[in-house]
Every structure is written in structure tokens, then in C-alpha cells.
User: Fold this.
Amino acid sequence: MRLDMNRPLRSAILAALLFAAGAGDAPALSWTWVEDPTDDHFGAGWFSIQGMGYAFDQTRLYFAIRTNLPETGWWGTDSYAHALLDPGDLRINASGNIYGLAFSTHANVVEQAYSGVWPTVTKGNLYSSPVFADGTLEQYEEWISWRGLTPTPSDGNLYDGQNSYPTLIRGFADERTGASAVQWNETPSGTPWLYEIVGSVDTLALGLDYGESFELFWSMECGNDAVAISGVNPVPEPATMCLLGGGLFVLILLLRRRPAV
Assistant:
């Protein structure tokens, strides 16, 4: 009977690789949240945004947005006489580099306000150097201020008659598929918000290194409410890096001790 002298070696190598891979078994995601005021939206409650959160693992930035707006948008009117107001796209500032994550497949949504044809963007795809349309309810911040409130976040000027919230991607430099994802989840009965918009983006696609800062911003086409959150891509704990290094060290030792044939 011919003995397979490589079988023990293969088993040992597999064990070493599993040891190294075990360092990447991330615990439950640790979320950071910002709450958005429940009374700073304009119009029906469908336009309310109630918060946003983010979390990281070793390779991805996760996000969740709490809102009452369905994926299909909601009926209403704005300064461009549209009957349907769509969800906006996610604006990502990754250490000074701007990206847009499409929350729906769309083109030419508010073309009355802009010249030229909008390129089609596809839900879940990431776009570099995006150009965003602004919110179409131009007096949003001024009208909210009449309630004695300051919209959170503010576009910087309550009384200029302009809604400067970035809403829908209407132009971009580059399209990146497969690096991101987004979906609407209905919440259980009794939850103060009806939907959580959840997804993630590959930090490599964003060029977001450990220790670098980022900001996420989201609104809907009309700009009747908005939410923003910022943070830092955390540096991996030293223990995790040691485990990975230890696994590779074991593998090197096993290869060096391979018996001669």
C-alpha cells in the first residue's frame, strides 16, 4: 500500500489556515447611531427620517437609515410639479473623496431644473465624483424655522429660499458595480419608523483607510427632511493582527518542516 506522505502536511496546512482565518471571525457589528428629530420634517409623516447608524467590519462600511418613506416614494407636489417624490441617493464623503450610492434605478427625475440628460444610475451601484440634484422643496428650512426649530442637519442658510440638500445623482465620473448593496426592510409593528434602509460599501472601493474620517448624508427628492452621520474607520485591534500573523507563522514552520521524499 502506497502511503500519501503529503496528507499530514495538507491537514496541518489547513489547520494553520483555519487558525489564521479564525482571527477574522468578527463579533456582532458595533453600531453608532445619530437620532434625527421627529418633528423637523415637512408635509406628511411619510417624509420623516428618524436616524442613521453605521458599523464596520474588516472590509466593509455598513449603514442603516430609519425612515417612513417607502422605496417607491410617496405622492406629493414640489416646486417642479412632480406627483411622485422619490427616495434620494446616499452621499458618501470618504476622507474628502465624494461618492454616491444609488438607492434606486433612475434617470431624469427632476430634469426641469437642469439642462441636459441625466445618465441612468442603477440601484446598489457606487458612483465616483457624483453631481447631485438639490432638494426641490426650496423653502423647507425657512418653513421649519417658523416652528421654532432648526433643521437637522442644516444646509447652512435658513432664509435663502434654496434647498441645498444633495438628493439624487444626476451625473458621475465612474460607475462601480459589486462593491455595495442597499435594500429596504419593513420594521415590526409598533416600531416608530416604518422602514430601515440597510446596506454596505467596500471600504477599498471608497479608498477609506484605517483611521480616516467619513460622512454619510441622505434625503429624499423633495428635501423635506435629511439625516447625516460622521465617524472614523477604526484601526484594527493589535490582538487581531497578532492572531493573523501567528497563523501565517505556523504555516511557514510547517512548510519548512516538510519531510524529504
